[in-house]
Specification:
By secondary structure, the protein is mainly β. It contains 2 helices and 12 strands, in the order ααββββββββββββ. It has helices spanning 2-9, 24-38; strands at 43-53, 58-69, 72-77, 80-84, 89-93, 98-102, 124-134, 137-146, 154-162, 167-175, 180-190, 210-213. The protein has a 12-stranded mixed beta sheet, covered by helices on one side.
Amino acid sequence: MKRILFFSFLLLISSLNANAQEDKKAKSILDKLSAKTRSYSSIKTDFTYSLVNKDRKINTTQSWKLILKGDKYRLEMGDQIVISDGKTMWKVLKTDKEVEISKPAAGEDALNPKNIFTMYEKGFRNKYVKEEKLGAKTVHVIELFPLVPKEKDYNSIRLFIDKNQLQVVKSEIRGKNGNLYTYDIKKFITNEPVEDALFTFKSAEFPGFEVNDLR
């Protein structure tokens, strides 16, 4: 479930295909956002993920972390860690004391963290909603709607983009089941040196874990 939710988060931060139905102001902002994020050599981000469903009385919040460097990534989601060096992916399940080894999903459209700033450049129409204050920041609010709604389990995605820094600071996904998923970015650091060792699984860090090779 967490992996599914994170991959929904991958649909949050960039631009849309020129062939999609587009709002010109929204497209201009998203294109600039995409160009800026493509220029980064590395990204480190800390964010909170929350799930709210008032009818089902659900209200949960977790802290997640993501590090990106080219094809490499490390995603920490509470009791799960997903690590990839670009050729191999390790999913560490802390609660089950288990590690699953597989190949990373390939292609620009793949559900893969390395595509976080590019994979949603198609398949949506966008709408500029408004400019507003979010805390001390002035943000652009842009709504994304899937061009083929029946293929998605959500109705819309709302982005809150820092007007001055041109970075997404918050995003919301409204699910068809009444769930509201919110991702609130707390820290966004770019172009810092990142050791490649972070993107390789080390068995010494997880003693006693069962390893299942699914390749």
